[in-house]
Amino acid sequence: MMRGALLGMSRSSTIKNVVTRAPVTRGVVTRFVAGDSTADAVEATRALAADDLRVTIDHLGEDTTDRGQAARVAVAYVELLGALHTAGLSDRAEVSVKLSALGQYLPQGGEDLALENARTICQAAANAGTTVTLDAEDHTTTDSTLGVLAELRRDFPDTGAVLQAYLRRTEEDCAALAVAGSRVRLCKGAYQEHESVAFSDPHAVDLSYVRCLRVLIDGPGYPMVASHDPRLIAIAADLVTRAGRSRDSYEFQMLYGVRPAEQVRLARLGHTVRIYLPYGDDWYGYLVRRLAERPANLAFFARSLVGR
Ligand code: FAD
Asked: Quick one: DSSP state of residue 141?
């Protein structure tokens, strides 16, 4: 119930206005967000790279219904990719992009606009020698996002996708995307979804995650195992070993600020580990989804709101 209420909050502009203006201590935001600026994102990447971690950087923002704002997000990514290249970090970092931040929700021509903006970002990533992954948002956008992915992959075949194990359709989507050269991040899913389209029982989500993992790991693509769940990480490590996959043919992914010791432990074992690193001032929706994932985070946040 708490998770549902929080996920509802993540899309409320009224609550967003109250929370973002409250004197939230910097600590609660900076645990999950690298900073406001491009320079902050580059510095955080450098620090993670020193621990032998890779990074995928998200310029925070979503649900844009303003063409100008969508274009500004694309420009921010182009600037970031240029800065990573200049800093010599583009072999360590790629970017993660939400199509809703690039205009996908616009009622007239939103998908075309998001595709055009995403193409600009993919070209900048190619120029910098790195890649782009399209984040997954709520299920109403899945078909549109996979359609945009297919278009982008014609010119930028290493563009990655994200699939959410909680959606009932995902096992089939995994089968369709388990092809040579295809980079697929598998996560549990972070949005509020109806029982008709998504598993709500956590155990059913875990079972779906394992079924999807098997499809991706047995296929010829590049699976990106995005979870902090110790059981799923152990199962994935076992499946890649059984499949005889080399260490450069898959990766683990985790969120910035979540289980940092485990991130370093896996990297020291020789696995590729990539950290999802958000930056920017539009942190509200992202932060509330992280709070919804773990009640302990919520207590931490509530204490900071009342200044304790
Ligand atoms: P859970 O069962 O939620 O957690 C397992 C354990 O991990 C918990 O017991 C706890 O110890 C720890 N943990 C998990 N979350 C937190 C947290 N927030 N704070 C502290 N500890 C925590 N979702 C999407 O819908 N679309 C995306 O594009 C997307 N991209 C992602 C990219 C990456 C790299 C990752 C790691 C996740 C992404 N997610 C995305 C979020 C994902 O769907 C889950 O909501 C999130 O990862 C929590 O699920 P879990 O697999 O870690 O398992």
From this structure: G
pLDDT band of 308, cuts 50, 70, 90: very low
Ligand 1, atom 45, residue with closest C-alpha? 190
How far does residue 188's CA lie from ligand 1's centre (Å)? 7
- Tell me what pLDDT residue 168 has: 98
| Residues facing 93 on adjacent strands | 55
Q: From the CA of 228, how far away is ligand 1's center (Å)? A: 6
Work out the angle between the directed axes of helices 202-218 and 230-242 (0-180°, nearest 10). Answer: 20
Q: Is 160 in the pocket of ligand 1 (CB under 6 A)?
A: no
Question: In terms of pTM, does the model score above 0.90?
Answer: yes
Task: Report ipTM for this prediction.
Answer: 0.96
Find the catalytic residue in 54, 92, 119, 135. 135
pLDDT digits (tens, 9 = 90+) for 204-225: 999 999 999 999 999 999 999 9
Domains along the sequence of the chain with CATH: 33-282 (3.20.20.220)
Amino acid found at 57: I
Does 255 contact ligand 1 (Cβ within 6 A)? yes
Length of the chain: 308
Tens digits of residue pLDDT in 278-289: 999 888 888 888
Could you give the percent of the chain with pLDDT greater than 70? 90
Ligand 1 centroid to 203 CA: how many Å?
15
**Which helix or strand (DSSP H or E) is residue 184 part of?**
strand 183-187
> CA 202, CA 190: separation in Å to the nearest integer?
12
Beta-carbon contacts of residue 155 (< 8 Å; ≥ 6 apart) = 119, 122
Most distant pair of Cα atoms in the chain: their distance: 52
CB of 53 within 8 A of CB of 263?
yes
β-strand partners of 225: 186, 252
Q: For residue 153, which phi and psi values (nearest 5 degrees)?
A: -65, -15
